[in-house]
Amino acid sequence: MNYLRVQTIAVRVGAVALLVMGYHWYGWPGVAGAAGALVMWMLLQFTRMLQVLRRAANRPKGHVDSSVMLNARLHPGVSLMQVVALTRSLGELRSPANEQPEVFRWTDTGQSFVECEFLGGKLISWRLDRPTQALADTAP
Description:
single chain, alpha+beta, Beta-lactamase Inhibitory Protein, Chain:B, domain 1, 2 domains, 5 helices, 4 strands, elongated
């Protein structure tokens, strides 16, 4: 079973457990309080997503300030939304639309790029590619 499926089940079980505990401890007012907390959590997630997408909308698609720094900050399991928040740019889709795994690319001004592979919205692999001319120019 993949990580995304486990996370989805865990969130649903946690929500039901919160509602049941609210009823057990405080009756129907407890259920109302727990439901209010769940709605607030969902609104916070939605607001964060909108903020990330609003920032990304103001930048060129697939652009990152430094692909080397992005490469250093990535690790397996990071969500696509977290990578978009790091880059402040939507990635350039390199795989066929609506097919798993999805491959996105972010390129910096030196034509170095990071290509990330996402499965179910979670990062499974990535690679940094730096042009050989740029490396030769920086050598002493």
